[in-house]
Design a protein that fits this description.
By secondary structure, the protein is α+β, with helices and mostly antiparallel strands. It is about 40% helix and about 35% strand. The protein folds into two domains: about 140 residues, Nuclear Transport Factor 2, Chain: A; about 120 residues, Roll (Nuclear Transport Factor 2, Chain: A), CATH 3.10.450.50. It is built from seven helices and ten strands.
Amino acid sequence: MRSMVYKSVSVVFVIAVVVIFMAAHHEKGNDDLASLKEAHNLHWEGWKSADMETHFSTVYPEGSGIFPDGYLASSMKNLDYDSLRNSAKQWYENFEVQIGNPNFNIQGNVAVGTYNQTTTNKETGREEKNIRTDVWARTGGKWLRFHFQYTPLTADNVVMTNRFMEEVWNEGNLSVIDEIFSPSMVQGQKQAIASVRTAFPDIQFRIDDTSAGSNKVTVEWTVSGTHQEEYMGVTATGKKAEFSGVSVVTFAGGKIVKTSVVFDSLNLWRQLGVDPPQPPATDSSTAE
């Protein structure tokens, strides 16, 4: 009987220890999450109020980041706070930023925070949506952000592709190119599209099908237009052509960085009733 009592007491004691341990672990987890959320809020409030001292008190000096335009910030040391303060003020004068669906995953002294970030241009009303990921580490008893990265939402890539087809190609609004294309592509795109729209001023694209991946949007389309001005050295024929093709639009940093187009060009020239323009002959008369 005494042995059974001892065993019962031992079991109760073990259960009590486990309960106390689990309660302490749960309480510690709650404290960790609360302190991480506090650091996260302080981080954003400091930037929004242009208080760079507060903002960077939550950042590890050797931290890094990748901005929506693809720019890599490799170090947070030796920063010009006054310049950054002005940048933050100007940013919030022109844009409204909303953060939604925050989620924090803590594993020991490392944590990952993810949330949606919607940036709205106050003048145009245009929105840019990204998923932001922050990597935090607890050091010296406080949470510091080590790295951040933006990932454009695929749905927005489709929206930008549709704007490219509708507003740029169909409506001829070339200023949209400045918004949705990488700066290195803007001038070339404007020149190429202006040239085609001059030759085919009534050009219209119809989107037949769209599919999207992580950073690419594929569009199947049918285009029609009347050849009213010279195009690729061919004098205006006054004839209308219609044909189909496929475009693959590649994104990086929330901008279009590449467009690839496939279509039957021979079909176009046949409908216009002319021979395809030939590439300039290579001058082989000069001996080496």
